[in-house]
């Protein structure tokens, strides 16, 4: 088998078994501490995310983090697809839990608008789709080239409308609107983003803003994006939105007047301007581009037998190269 199989035995890990409450009690009594301490290879800043510590009522256990996930500890099958200019890439089989391809999957890179996957995940989890959001002065984004929806201070729309605009149009101003509306401030929302990432085991990423505009200390890995994207796919609304090629809506300006907005998805597979490889159907995904991040794309696809896949390419050199490389990567699916 060429792929990297996900099992309950992981590299760089000394412990993957459950520790009984009795044993933990003995450890605590010997150390005299009020809480258990674990001597294990895993660290928050480890170069591979493999398992996390779960705390449950009446017991503390070490459970395998990746029991139902793919694991990447090194490059895999890079000879199958030549992508020398790509910063990082990976292809995961969600049924067999195999990593079919991995290049620099644990290297920290700038995510650009792929950040908005985590923004949507946090908003759906902590917000209510029918809640009304009111834009503050902070929605005025001045970075050159930033994609904007044209929302102005005082404008109002529901979280449902905002999520559609966020994921389809990749609007950076709407990301600020969502963050402030859901958490009260951008800082509080970003704290939730980092908390949720850590809870998912995505420990090699750091979010500084909800839109992915270039900022020091804002980075992800291709593997952590896989973890985040897979979690977001569990929500029906997220699934619905990422499959849409366009979206139109009407929201209110600060005086109660109507403002119409129609946006199109930049995903070329959904637009029909990029042919899908044989035997693969692209369901949806997210694009991202900045000068620092290059051209990025993450996709949810299915093979001809219905097998689900997640593929991601980070820091490609151009839009044309990105889709050519993604088509080559998906083309390795049997």
Structural class: alpha+beta
Distance between the termini: 13 Å
* CA-atom Rg in angstroms: 21 Å
Oligomer: single chain
- Estimate percent helicity: 25-40%
Number of strands: 12
* Strand line-up of the largest beta sheet: 1-5-4-12-11-10
- Quick one: overall form? globular
- Beta content: 15-25%
Instruction: Give the ordered list of helices and strands.
Output: EHEEEEHEEHHHHHEEHEEEH
Unreliable stretches (pLDDT < 50, length at least 5) are 1-42, 50-62
Q: What is the number of helices?
A: 9
Report the sheet with the most strands, covering strand number, pairing sense and barrel closure.
Answer: 6 strands, antiparallel
Question: What's the rounded overall pLDDT mean?
Answer: 86
State the main characteristics:
334 residues, 12 strands, single chain, 9 helices, disordered N terminus, alpha+beta
Folded structure, characterized:
The chain is of the alpha+beta class and 334 residues long. The protein has 9 helices and 12 strands. A 6-stranded antiparallel sheet has the order 1-5-4-12-11-10, with helices on both faces. It has a two-stranded antiparallel ribbon with strand order 2-3. A two-stranded antiparallel ribbon has the order 6-7. A hairpin with a 3-residue loop joins strand 10 and strand 11. Helix 2 packs antiparallel against helix 3. The two termini are 13 Å apart. The N terminus is likely disordered.
